[in-house]
Structure to design on (593 residues):
């Protein structure tokens, strides 16, 4: 009798599981910006309070070897949405700038790329993006919106078309001065030396210097410098933009209560779409600099403004989870939490306060392919479907979200393009012990930097670095003289043979293996080189969306809610502390889209 009862209960449990997994689920995708994997309690932090994010690990599955496909914002987000290495879509570059820094740039996610958002919309989903986009805006005019989120499947957008930068917050500092400090110093030295040399040669009558020409050159340089300084003095007005759909509502945006405002937008989206399948992409601005936090969180953490911002982010996640519970949607919703890359170690404020986070035991940070730059949180919760409290330790990627979501929604994965992501559900259900990734390839901009190999039926995870960034000052884990680590020239050191690590035994990448310490060294490296050659043959030439021409500021593409002569300023939110979210107009807009 007892055996029969157990059999019946087990049958019912399995039936409920299958039924839950077979319905068209909702999705809440949550991405933090520059959050270190070590900043969360579930990944080992003991001083920051992140109970709501930690609850996702407690009630769902924690991926302990989750990898961002790039270590910079723009390419990493492109990979998440398309399920493809960003080099396939041209969202990497051979040049130094690997992200968009001007709203009036012409590059962006190619319009022929397919996002999982677009595929879900075709399945009848309501789709919304709250927060950061950073994948382009316009192509030929200031309002063609060719790279706007609504072109890629989103019904609704409330957020930043670009990114939150230091310049966007009064007193937050200047990213150009920080990033170009050494270039400015070198330029001043060169100009001063040249001027002194010319004057000395003229004084000793070794060279006749035409004073009019010298004066003209000096005046032209002064005018050019003045124009550059004027442009950068208006950076906040031109680039720090808050939009609702295709309408600019704050320029420049205010950081006051901004996380609260975006949280209300997110919960409002859930309420408006609770009776239909939906996808909410909550793309947080925290903890990218400039850091900010609402009044009730300021000074409350043990890690200054950075910690305050992390704890407010966690509060926001709690509000979203509470809304799902209140609307009786938790059991029908797959929640995914991650960060676009590791913490930005070089972020130190002008007053000397550390504004970057902690990457735990992992070496390096943002803009590097050391583990600290690409090892990110990966948390998935789906009550009644995914086993609570489970950990998965094999390599997975943020590109895996694409096939996972598309397959669950019973949409069709495009057959005309390579999808590099792998469906996570067999791994999460325990049907397989390893993900579909035997190899993962790590690009620093368009340069292949490293490769990871998880051999079938093996516990080892090998990683080979073909080049690594030169850290400054020597012995540090960051590139503090350039603000981020670059991928070419004297900024890197090439390795032949490559630096080889077994990440299971040495996750901190402290001691590279040698033929003496690892007898299989040459065979392992040979297998990885062969995999690299095979992968490189799958790449086809595409336009460089982050070329210098595509990232430079173009005045005819500048989005303005007023005229440029009025400094592109407006505030169309009724007030900041108790703003009118305009939900009635939002509903009608979504219906039209």
């Amino acid at each position: 009798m007892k055996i029969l009862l157990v059999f019946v209960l087990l049958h019912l449990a399995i039936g409920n599981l299958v039924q839950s997994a077979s319905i068209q689920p909702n999705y809440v995708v949550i991405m933090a910006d520059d959050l270190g994997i070590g900043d969360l309690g579930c990944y080992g932090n003991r001083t920051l309070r992140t109970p709501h994010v930690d609850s996702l690990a407690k009630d769902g599955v924690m991926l302990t070897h989750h990898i961002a496909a790039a270590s910079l914002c723009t390419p990493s987000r492109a990979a998440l949405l398309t399920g493809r290495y960003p080099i396939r879509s041209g969202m990497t570059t051979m040049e130094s700038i690997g992200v968009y820094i001007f709203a009036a740039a012409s590059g962006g996610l190619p319009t022929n790329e397919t996002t999982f958002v677009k595929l879900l919309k075709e399945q009848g989903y309501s789709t919304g993006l709250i927060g950061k986009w950073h994948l382009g805006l316009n192509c030929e005019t200031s309002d063609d919106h060719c790279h706007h989120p609504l072109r890629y499947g989103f019904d609704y957008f409330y957020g930043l078309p670009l990114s939150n930068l230091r310049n966007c917050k009064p007193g937050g500092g200047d990213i150009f001065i920080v990033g170009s400090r050494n270039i400015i110093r070198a330029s001043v030295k060169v100009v001063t030396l040249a001027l002194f040399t010319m004057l000395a040669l003229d004084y000793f009558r070794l060279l006749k210097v035409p004073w009019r020409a010298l004066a003209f050159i000096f005046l032209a340089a002064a005018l050019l410098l003045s124009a550059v300084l004027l442009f950068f003095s208006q950076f906040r007005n031109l680039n720090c933009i808050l939009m609702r759909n295709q309408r600019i509502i704050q320029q420049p945006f205010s950081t006051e209560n901004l996380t609260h405002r975006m949280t209300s937008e997110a919960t409002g989206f859930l309420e408006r779409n609770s009776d239909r399948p939906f996808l909410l992409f909550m793309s947080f601005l925290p903890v990218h600099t400039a850091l900010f936090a609402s009044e009730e969180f300021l000074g409350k953490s043990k890690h200054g403004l950075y910690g305050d911002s992390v704890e407010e982010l966690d509060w926001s996640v709690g509000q979203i989870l509470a809304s799902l519970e209140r609307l009786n949607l938790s059991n029908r919703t797959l929640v995914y939490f991650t960060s676009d890359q590791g913490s930005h170690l070089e972020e130190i404020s002008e007053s000397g306060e550390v504004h970057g986070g902690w990457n735990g035991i992992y070496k390096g940070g943002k803009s590097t392919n050391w583990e600290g730059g690409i090892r990110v949180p990966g948390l998935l919760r789906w009550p009644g479907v995914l086993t609570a409290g489970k950990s998965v330790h094999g390599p997975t990627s943020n590109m895996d979200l694409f096939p996972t979501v598309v397959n669950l929604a019973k949409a069709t994965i495009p057959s005309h393009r390579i999808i590099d992501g792998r469906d996570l559900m067999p791994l999460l259900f325990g049907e397989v012990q390893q993900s579909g990734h035997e190899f993962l390839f790590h690009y620093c901009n368009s340069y292949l930097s490293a490769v990871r190999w998880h051999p079938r039926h093996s516990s080892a995870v090998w990683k080979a670095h073909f080049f690594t960034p030169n850290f400054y000052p020597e012995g540090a884990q960051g590139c503090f003289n350039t603000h981020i680590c670059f991928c070419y020239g004297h900024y890197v050191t090439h390795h032949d043979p490559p630096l080889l690590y077994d990440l299971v035994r040495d996750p901190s990448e402290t001691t590279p293996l040698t033929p003496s310490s690892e007898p299989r060294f040459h065979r392992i490296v040979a297998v990885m080189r062969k995999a690299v050659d095979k992968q490189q043959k799958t790449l086809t030439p595409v336009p460089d969306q982050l070329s210098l021409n595509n990232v430079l500021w173009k005045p005819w593409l500048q989005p303005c809610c007023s005229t440029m002569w009025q400094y592109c300023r407006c505030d169309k939110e009724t007030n900041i502390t108790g703003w009118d979210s305009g939900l009635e107009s939002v509903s009608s807009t979504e219906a039209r889209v």
